[in-house]
Amino acid sequence: GELLRQYAQEMTEISDKIEHDFAVLRSRPLGDIYVGGIDANLTSGIRLMSELRAERPDLIIHYRSCCSTDALALLDRGLLDFAIVSNQARVTHYETLRVTPACQWVAVIRRDNPLAQRDALTAADLCDALLLMYDQALKAPPELNDLAQWFGGDFSHLNVVATSNLTAVLYGFAGEGMGVLLTWENITHVGDYDVVSVPLEPAVTAWALLAWHKDRPLSPAATHALALTRAKAAEWCGR
């Protein structure tokens, strides 16, 4: 019964989206665009959506924040045009385009935590710490999970006290002193929290990819967005 309910919800959601999209095309030929994925480093994604809106004021953008695995599942079901995913996601069945420069994983720590006084943190420093982590960091396949490889054999024994797909939630937890947040550098600060970012040692590098289906036709809005992204990707990535 639960499985049938889940399938019914998915079918209803897809049906509603189809009905909405065709209704929109009557008044706005470009239609809407549906994007979802990680929000740890959305600078390029936000820039893309802003430039799209500047070019086409009739365009409406729908963004859903979720981990890479969930974003790809929504992409498979036709509920997203594009997924913004981390380099740790398994994307062999998709077309991808890198849309952010390389950045480093850091530990976001409230200033009164003794670990905040360190210049860098090693895996040994964090093995016994209370940790706040993204869902994706726990779901990523071991061979693609750079963070798991950084921790080594201790990864499965970490003291993870909270997870989320939302950076704002995890950042708030870190600001309240619930634990140490492992995230990408240069994340958007949320709230007036006295926290510091401490780099990991050795450094762990990350970046974001724009993913879409290889064989599925893109909507007019998605086609326009992809053309703009291809033209701007090198600039956004600092290449």
Descriptive notes:
Helices cover about 35% and strands about 25% of the residues. It has about 240 residues and is an alpha/beta fold. The strands form 2 sheets. Strands 5, 6, 7, 8, 9 and 10 form a 6-stranded mixed β-sheet that branches. Strands 2-1-3-11-4 form a 5-stranded mixed β-sheet, sandwiched between helices. The radius of gyration is 19 Å and the shape is globular. The termini are far apart. About 35% of the residues are buried.
- What does the oligomeric state look like here? single chain
Could you give the order of the helices and strands? HEHEHEEEHEHHEHEEEEH
Terminal CA distance reads: 52 Å
Mean pLDDT: 85
* Spans where pLDDT lies below 50 across 5 or more residues: none
Number of beta-strand segments: 11
Instruction: Give the percentage of residues in beta strands.
Output: 15-25%
Report the radius of gyration as a whole number of Å.
19 Å
Instruction: Based on Cα principal axes, name the global outline.
Output: globular
Question: Total number of helical segments?
Answer: 8
Largest sheet entry: 6 strands, mixed
Q: What would you call the structural class?
A: alpha/beta
Q: Portion of residues in helices?
A: 25-40%
